[in-house]
Specification:
about 190 residues; alpha/beta; Rossmann fold; 5 strands; globular
Length: about 190
């Protein structure tokens, strides 16, 4: 399946949100496999940690994300990412932003792309998410306490609100193949809904 190119004024931006470990990355992988550009907000934080030459640990990524927001505003990552999204919109009918985490970020995106901006939430229970986080082995993941701290921090940015107000919701309390099938079904419907 390929993405049909449309005039850039009709191109659409989708931001995927969800609590840590909910499956945002898996959703992004499905869209990426169809040639849709994916820009990750988490990658921006990871790049900042590397730029500062800090030792990667479960707490450092959250500290840097919070520090960036404190120094430059809650919308800093969205503002920094928006121009790169616009570049991709010149040649793509859909661009995905992975990892929108707060209301300030959503406001930036809504103001920038107006009716061509959509949000999608991936939902999974805390137990399912914690199990997945333990299995994926990223440097920002830690024990149950680190998981709870991260959830609390991201809730403080307005993540629960943007999840509840998202345009679309995909349940990910299922096996990977079932979730991937749901993502494929969503993409097919979204591409055909002009």
């Amino acid at each position: 399946m390929s993405i049909r190119l449309r005039h850039s004024s009709m191109a659409r931006v989708v931001a995927v949100c969800g609590m840590p470990g909910s499956g945002k990355g898996e959703f992004a992988n499905v869209l990426h496999s169809h040639g849709i550009p994916v820009l990750s907000m988490g990658d921006m934080v990871r790049a900042e940690v590397r730029r500062l030459e800090l030792k990667e640990s479960p707490g450092i990524f959250g500290e840097i994300a919070a520090q960036l927001r404190a120094e430059h505003g809650e919308d800093v990552l969205a503002v920094r990412l928006a121009d790169a999204v616009d570049e991709h919109l010149k040649n793509n009918s859909i661009v995905l932003i992975e990892g929108m985490r707060g209301t300030a970020e959503r406001i930036v995106f809504e103001q920038r792309w107006k009716k061509n901006f959509f949000s999608l939430a991936v939902d999974a229970s805390p137990e399912t998410r914690f199990t997945r986080i333990q299995n994926r082995g990223r440097s920002e993941d830690g024990d149950r306490e680190a998981f709870e701290i991260r959830d609390k921090r991201e809730r403080g940015w307005g993540l629960e609100q943007i999840i509840s107000e998202s345009n679309f919701l995909i349940d990910n309390n299922v096996e990977l193949h079932a979730f991937q099938a749901s993502c494929e079904q969503w993409l097919s419907a979204f591409e055909n809904d002009e």
